[in-house]
Amino acid sequence: MTIEEVTLLCNEGSVRWTKHILERLFSRGISLEDVKYVLQNGVIIEQYPTDYPFPSCLVFGYTKTKKALHVVCGSNKKELWFITAYFPDPNEWTDDFKKRRF
């Protein structure tokens, strides 16, 4: 999966929101607009090619208000499924929020 594929599906509106992500967005104070903005302007930092039912990836970017955000999405090449989103914990991620601290 490439960021270009993610961005294209997002821009086309070929997206599906899971119940899980909607619950998480509400509980974490993340807007639908934040998720779309990051997917349209972010970078893929991890790939999960064996995820079921579709390969997925972790996208990192900043919201319009400059908050770091991670979004996990999967794709069957026709639709983009939003899985979850969260503000990365600085104790778990490097200073640029692109690599996990192991």
List keywords for this structure.
alpha+beta, 29% helix, globular, 102 residues, single chain, YaeB-like fold, 30% strand
Structural description of this entry:
The chain has 102 residues and is of the alpha+beta class. It has one domain (3-86): YaeB-like fold. Helix content is 29%, strand content 30%. It contains 3 helices and 5 strands; from the N terminus they run H-E-H-H-E-E-E-E. Strands 1-5-4-3-2 form a 5-stranded mixed β-sheet. Strand 2 (43-48) and strand 3 form a beta hairpin. It is globular, with a radius of gyration of 13 Å.
Q: How many DSSP helices?
A: 3
Which stretches of 5+ consecutive residues score pLDDT under 50? none
User: Order of strands across the widest beta sheet?
Assistant: 1-5-4-3-2
- Supply the helix-strand structural class: alpha+beta
CATH architecture: 2-Layer Sandwich
Give me the Rg, rounded.
13 Å
Helix percentage range: 25-40%
Q: Give the biggest beta sheet.
A: 5 strands, mixed
CATH topology term: YaeB-like fold
Cα distance, first to last residue?
25 Å
Which range does the strand content fall in? 25-35%
**What is the 3D shape?**
globular
Whole-number total of structural domains = 1
CATH class category name: Alpha Beta
- Say how many strands there are: 5
H-E order: HEHHEEEE
Average pLDDT figure: 94
